[in-house]
Write a structure and sequence with these properties.
mainly beta; Immunoglobulin-like; 5 domains; 6-stranded antiparallel β-sheet
Length: 800
Amino acid sequence: MKSAFKSLYGFAAIAMLLLAAMPAIFAFNPPETIAMWIEPQTINLTTATVDVGYKFNVTVWGKTTDVYAAAWQFWLRYNAAVLNATGVWYCLPDGTGDPTGPSEFMTGAGKTSPVTPTIWTYDGYGQAEFGESWTSGAYAPPKPSGARMAIVEFMVTAVPGKGQTLESLLEISFSTVGTWILDKDDNYYYKAYDAYYSLTWAPPASPGLEVLPATRFYDRYTVWNGTTFDETVQLTNLAAAWYLTNVSFTLNYNKDELEIINIVGNNAAWDVHLDVDNLTEPGKVVVYAETSQTLSGNVGILTVTFMIIDQDEYPTVEPHVLSLTGVSAFDHTLQITVSPIKPATITVEGYLAVAMPWMEVKPKDTVLGPDFVKHTTFKVNVTINRLHFAWRLVALEFRLSYNKTFLKVISVEEGPYLKEFAPYGTFFISYIEDDGRYGPHVLVGDVIMPDGNGTWAPPFPGDVEGGAKENGTVAIITFEVIEQLPGYNGGAADLEGAFDLFEIYMYNDDVESIPVNLDRVVNGTVTIKGFAQQGRFIDVYGGADNAGHGSIPFPAPYGGQGLNKPMDLVIPQSEVTLFADVLYNYWPVQSKDVNFEVEGPYEHKFNETSQQWYYEKKQNWFILLKETARTNASGVANISFAMPWYCQNPESLLGVWKVTATVNIRDQVVTDTLYFYYDYMVHIWKVTTDKFYYAHEETVKITVDYGSHAMQTYDGLFSAVIKDELNVVIGMDLAEVTLGGARFCTFANGTVTLSIHIEKWAFAGYADIYVNCYDKDPTIGGFAWTPQKFEDDKIYILPN
């Protein structure tokens, strides 16, 4: 490695630049075969657009006509009273700077060694030292037209007085020790050319005077009397070249609506004098500020603390203008125009009392019976009513009592209301408390989660008065009837209970309590009517495993509980379990043989003449099984079986299947029937795209229409894949949905949209789309709810 760099320590002091002796301005490409120079060679600026802190760049160039370069170095000297070098970088072939190089000048060299630039001040001069050296491989080939070595960034540190100019040479020629080019044979070349900088005074842009912040808004949902706020008066965009000495103005405010609590002046900036008078004339703050410093930029003068003292009632809205009058500014001899002059507007809406929210049990009155309803379930919703967003609700809590002698809590679910306003989710919790000082009740809490900083952002739950979102369900509680008495003309045998809401608490984002209108709380009641004497009775019901997503039996009413009631969907090859309750006057009949028959498939059809639905046997109808089971001590008999699935045309088995259960009770046969749909969990009806032709880098919007016979709800995960004309996978997207919610023998339909980006590398031409629906991701054990939907040549990727 060549030892290419020299250092200069303890060099003699050199006289400051003489403003009258400026160098000639050279051409961009010096006549010498080997030389260094600076571009631009003249930098003439004015204070009309340049102020202290302004930055500009110069580029150091080098040329070698017929020699191979091994290293270069420059020392760039300048007047430290007017400029400061703030950065030095290698200049790349594209003209950008880089700290490691190699520079454009050394392009073609095998390897170069970067150095760290050195910037210092000595004897009134600033100096920047920088260089680059060959280390191995080829040397840098000749650059006869010149090439860029480095970029030097300067910052303006002083502005001239009025009618004056500040100047500086940007010298690289002053020292042959510091500036040179070294060729591969260790020959040094010292020819260098300098540049010239000047900053001439010209009237800068006028400074402004503003009250900041320029606007404040206080809404009608809060009492603002006593609220304080700060407003600052400041000069803006003040150029140092103005050499401003003083400024004066009057700040005007409405003394009947606002009161001054405190005034703090910026004495550090206005060190000669800062006089503030807000006592002589109410509603006015008269200010005179004087400085000995050369101020620039945005300069604060004073900060006033106001207090709101007279908020009216809505719909009155008071815009309080903090205006500036009598504005003047001077330097030592001349007045300076101040523009723009900007006031501030403080808007205070009159106070509007917001209604207090309350809670309600829905339905208010639940009545079950006189049919036999023991072991059936029903739901009770708890809602929040008349909630206004101004309360900023983020959490609530309540207790709901119930009668445990004939009711049992099956589940407590979060309602959809608060989740609408929870971008980071909610925290829902519930406890079923059978005993204790409150008696049997359900305790529920729900919290909207804040962001990662622990703060909540609008929109908050609720709406304006009478708005669409001021009411909503916060909890859904499912009860099971565990007792029902025989009735005597619907009288004393009825069981009655109350759903009472109590200990209701609501909180805002400051963890402050929100008042609840307890006078408007709506409690609920429940009545279980006594059952009528019915004699002989059989009820067939059941459920299916449905690949682990179902239950045996399905919860009422989805299991077909009740006479001639349908059962929910059974998916292909699932195991079905059927039960039959055998009762006499609702007392279990034990050790009775129950006959089960399963037949199908049927097609559900509509008779246009009679306007009635009916079941018609499909062409491949057959009896699947006939089986007998004996009732246990509870009067229940059950069987189980798996649904068939053919090797060929298995879909022919899909449709409605009929279950018939019969039993002989004391020489009289009683019967119940049950129908269930045997089907895929979901059918994909249609796959559409937002258009047919796509360019590369566009996104395909894929809409999937689907439907399900399921009456209960199940999770679904849709996937879409696009393969291009050469069968290359372009991309995939996933979307979660909730399937089901249908009425028996009807479809619950829905749509879902997926998006796939067409990558640049995709082959042009026709592309296919593949759509699937899973219960969950296959990587965690998911499986397909339905066959894949294949769309051949669904889109066309353009070649341009």
